[in-house]
Design goal:
By secondary structure, this protein is α+β, with helices and mostly antiparallel strands. It has a single domain, classed as 4-Layer Sandwich (Chorismate synthase, AroC fold). It is 25% helix and 22% strand. The strands form six sheets. The protein has a five-stranded antiparallel sheet with strand order 1-2-3-7-4, covered by helices on one side. Helix 1 packs across helix 3 and helix 3 packs across helix 8. The two termini are 38 Å apart.
């Protein structure tokens, strides 16, 4: 199983949804970076379950403990270990899933690959694994902010058929995003999204959505052609998030309908740096950051576990039906923005440290 992401600034996540704890080990962080448990906790609170009707009712406080790698409020350059103890597991809700595979879930594939699985809450395939990513991502964000003034934000851009209206990306802030229960900064659209989520939940169903990512003031020249291109690593990072099924950067799939005369971002020099007049490239050309904001959009499928009865098959080869029990998010996109931000930060921090090897400047 591949549980490590990154080359220099690398994170290894561990733990299962209904095990004693989940967490991660972050390696390669330079010494001397100021970081506190409170800063990491603030990020974990954004992905924490039990935050009203928009999320699962599982009530976890997700209190983080830094076990190593930080002394007197600063990183020591040694591996940083994070742990969050699970407190509100209800494993008996998953008794049926021991026998029956959930349609749309990883249950079957885990059995096919390993011949054995932790069926309680999905085990390792649960999105609870992302706690370790968010903890490590908080450190990556702090590093990028300190060395380059980089800011990373993400928001829900659509839920079902409801789309966020046009936004001024230059002035968009995390505070605007977090005012919305579904993390959509367009409050009119937010109200409609909330209703769409509630309707799905009432019907024993779930609903999908999209999340947008914006990286303001990213470091220039990040990306390692040809296989570790910036956009390729961002795609890998995002598609590794549970339930993420689609990725595009810049104008993405819309570029397939454009002419080069419209898609090319015209250049100019302002006396200090090069800029583009548009940003169809999404901040990456040739797999290397050009200094413009990095803009991506991700698609998240509806939560697989629903209480509506569905046809399925069992471990013994029998056919039957399953109406799943347990506590589950009606829309995983609502809690995804901080995970998206964290994965982007991990990619950029790793590439930033790799770039330090490439140039003396």
């Amino acid at each position: 199983m591949a549980s490590t992401f990154g080359k220099i600034f690398s994170v290894t996540t561990w733990g299962e949804s209904h095990g004693p704890a989940v967490g991660s080990v972050l390696d390669g962080c330079p010494a001397g970076l100021e970081i506190t448990e409170e800063e990491i906790q603030a990020e974990l609170n954004r992905r924490r379950p039990g935050q009203g009707k928009m999320t699962t009712a599982r009530d976890e406080k997700d209190q983080v403990k830094i076990l190593s790698g930080v002394f007197e409020g600063k990183t020591t350059g040694t591996p940083i270990s994070f742990a969050v103890f699970n407190e509100d597991q209800r494993s008996h809700d998953y008794a049926e899933i021991q026998k029956w595979y959930r349609p749309g879930h990883a249950d079957l594939c885990y059995d096919l690959k390993y011949g054995f699985r932790d069926y309680r809450g999905g085990g390792r395939s649960s999105a609870r694994e992302t706690i370790g990513r968010v903890a490590a991502g908080a450190v990556a964000k702090k590093l990028l902010k300190q060395v380059n003034g980089t800011e990373i934000i993400a928001w829900v851009n659509s839920i079902g058929e409801v789309d966020c209206g046009p936004l001024d990306l230059n002035s968009l802030t995390l505070e605007q995003i977090e005012k919305s229960p579904v993390r959509c900064p367009d409050l009119d659209a937010s109200a409609k999204m909330e209703q769409a989520v509630l309707d799905a939940r009432t019907n024993g169903d779930s609903i999908g959505g999209t999340v947008c990512l914006l990286v303001k003031n990213p470091p220039v020249a990040l990306g390692e052609p040809v296989f570790d291109r910036l956009d390729a690593l961002l795609a890998q990072a995002m598609l590794s998030i549970p339930a993420c099924k689609g990725f595009e950067i810049g104008s993405g799939f819309a570029s397939a309908r454009m002419h080069g005369s419209k898609h090319n971002d015209e250049l100019y020099f302002d006396g200090h740096a090069y800029h583009t007049r548009t940003n169809n490239a999404g901040g990456s050309l040739g797999g290397i950051s050009n200094g413009e904001p990095i803009y991506c959009r991700m698609a998240f499928k509806p939560t697989a576990t629903i209480s509506q009865e569905q046809k399925t098959a069992g471990r013994g080869g029998e056919n039957g039906t399953l109406a799943a029990r347990g506590r589950h998010d009606p829309c995983v996109a609502v809690r995804a923005p901080v995970i998206v931000e964290s994965m982007a930060a991990l990619v950029l921090a790793d590439l930033f440290l790799q770039q330090k090897r490439n140039s003396l400047e």
